[in-house]
Amino acid sequence: MTVSEPRRDRRSTGGRPRVVVLGTGGTIASSADSATQLHDYRVTAGVEDMFTAIPELHALADLRAVNLLQLDSHAIDSAALLTIARRVAKELADPEVDGLIVTHGTDTLEETAYFLNLVLKSTKPVVVVGAMRPASALSADGPLNLYNAVRVALAPAAHGKGVLVVMNDRLFAARDVAKAHTTAVEAFEAAEEGCLGRIACGGIHLFHAPLRLHTAATSFSLDRLAELPMADIIFDHQGAGIHHYHAAIDAGARGIVLAATGNGSLSPSARLGAELAARAGVAFVRSSRVGRGIVTPSFDDETLGMVAAGSLNPQKARILLMLALTQSHELHHLRSCFERY
Ligand code: ASP
After folding, report:
1. Domain 11-217 sits in which CATH superfamily?
2. Residue 132 CA, closest ligand 1 atom number
3. Which of 15, 149, 189, 241 could form an SS bridge with 129, CB 3.0 to 4.6 Å?
4. Boundaries of each Asparaginase/glutaminase C-terminal domain copy (predicted)?
5. What global pTM score does this model have?
6. Residue 109 Cα: closest atom of ligand 1
């Protein structure tokens, strides 16, 4: 489906669509000491500064800036995640708001986007956007990323597609996207599912729609979420020890996600760790460190009470596991969540 015209909700009344841009920090809001310095920068800009840098934005919609956080995204914790989600939900509930953009650091952008995808009860477009180069850089990518994000939020086809991520002229489903390169402008990809669409030469071209449950169709609600349960990720490797599993369980983790080798294979310690978790009533999800492909159910899941993560990478599996655990620890419930979301 190709959508070349932004949606104009108020066209019939001569009004303009209203878009909220909610800032959380990150490279897109950062500056360095010179235009050629592309690392070691600081978060300095507010959303209004971005508006000033991109005057073309104001031709698209009536924009409202919300400076919520000024964090590097590797500093975002569960409390900050809930703060972001609650404020996004509040803004979307305003009938005057037609769409919302979250500007965010790229390091953990996929986790926030997926969390929002699972808890927001709205079909209004929400687009999460970042930048790989600071705003002060030569060929900074943030301005066009933000401009494209607003255009996507105004596209009729963006409605009901779940939370979207726009980076480097591509449009991704929050569930599928991951940061796959440490520095490249084309850092984001959806290795297994592919991107949802592309922004090219002024057109917004959508190729397909997400199939898994999201936003208004999910059973997760922010209303009953005072806090998120603790869930840890443990990276498996040759010669892995058992101590990480003891530490996670002793620290109060309610869930463990294994970044396993291959198709969710268990090292001897990971197997012992799964047994420890089962005895302690701690949920155990097998994801993979591989980064592409699907972790499929295995016979071990039955004997050790584990959950296969499917195509969710470890950090995404952790987001879903935390939300699933707010509803029940039952194994069939957890498995159902990983099959449906
Ligand atoms: N460290 C930055 C962050 O995640 C990287 C970025 O935004 O690109 O906040």
Report:
1. L-asparaginase, N-terminal domain (3.40.50.1170)
2. 8
3. 149
4. 232-338
5. 0.95
6. 4
